Automatic annotation (TrEMBL):
Keyword DNA-binding attributed: yes
Pfam families: AraC_binding, HTH_18
Protein name according to UniProt: AraC family transcriptional regulator
Record domain HTH araC/xylS-type: where: 172-270
Source organism phylogeny: Bacteria, Bacillati, Bacillota, Bacilli, Bacillales
């Protein structure tokens, strides 16, 4: 099991450089035959499921899972289930002094389970967009983003250990309920009551598991669905607002701009102009 505090110390202090970031979508049941790894890297699972074998150890990965491997490891992987696998891969180089130390934490394979943290997905997108920029300030921004991701992941993994299995089950059911009913009015009291929890307790454990308060997660999910519809380019903004739970298009536009930094109409225009 990964030592979270030790990993935090390593990535706070060790000399390393983020080299590349990729976002990949793999078809169901795809198989990656055994190969030897060449780089240090993390996989951040966004959706779908994956089974990876590394030096004989099997890891089952699902949304929220974070996996690490080092150079020189024997690996094979298979997409599990009937859904596509979407993930980000983040590759980095390590100072030669540490790369030659077999006991260094970066020279190990391990899995972290911070849960699905929407902020991590946002940061990964920004890292993906920033990693190939040049200049000192840009490189500093890349490192800032990576450290923010690692802080969120390590804190999430640590928090999971303090949440009981029944609380986790209730939260995961609440997430599924939100995804089915995001277009309807939802309140904290309703979400907590459905799962027989006190609203304050429910909000506390939801935040520990997801990194967001329940209603903030509802807003986050609505904005993600709205952005998908806007990228489709064929729906009026008023209709999109209603379809994601906002009867008032103006209020929807304000919430969308707060999330993405631009208005829904400009977002749709920018995205579709590149198609």
């Amino acid at each position: 099991m990964a030592n979270v505090d030790r990993l935090a110390e390593i990535f706070a202090n060790a000399p390393y450089e983020i080299k590349s970031v990729y976002r990949l979508v793999i078809q169901p049941k795809s198989i990656l035959r055994e190969f030897r790894t060449l780089k240090y890297g993390f996989l951040f699972i966004i959706r779908g499921a994956n089974r990876i074998s590394v030096n004989g150890t099997v890891y089952d990965l699902h949304p929220g899972s974070v996996f690490h491997a080092a150079p020189g490891m024997q690996m094979e992987a298979q997409v599990a289930g009937e859904s596509e696998l979407e993930y980000y891969s983040v590759f980095y180089s390590l100072d030669q002094r540490y790369a030659e130390d077999s006991h260094h934490g970066c020279n190990a394979h391990f899995k972290l389970e911070p849960g699905v943290i929407p902020r991590v997905i946002e940061l990964l997108l920004m890292l993906h967009q920033s990693v190939h920029t040049q200049g000192g300030m840009e490189k500093l921004r890349v490192k800032e983003l990576f450290l923010s991701i690692m802080h969120q992941v390590l804190m999430g993994h640590k928090n999971q250990a303090t949440i009981g299995s029944s609380d986790i089950a209730a939260i995961e059911k609440a997430i599924a309920y939100i995804k089915r009913n995001y277009m309807n009015p939802l309140t904290l009291e309703e979400l907590a009551g459905i799962h027989a929890m006190n609203p304050k307790r429910f909000s506390y454990f939801f935040h520990k598991h997801m990194g967001l308060r329940p209603i903030d997660f509802v807003i986050q999910y609505r904005m993600e669905r709205a952005s998908e519809l806007l990228r489709g380019g064929s729906f009026p903004i008023r209709d999109i607002a209603v379809s994601v739970g906002y009867a008032n298009p103006l209020y929807f536009s304000r919430a969308f701009k707060k999330k993405f930094g631009i208005s829904p109409s400009l977002y749709a225009k920018q995205f579709n102009s590149h198609i």
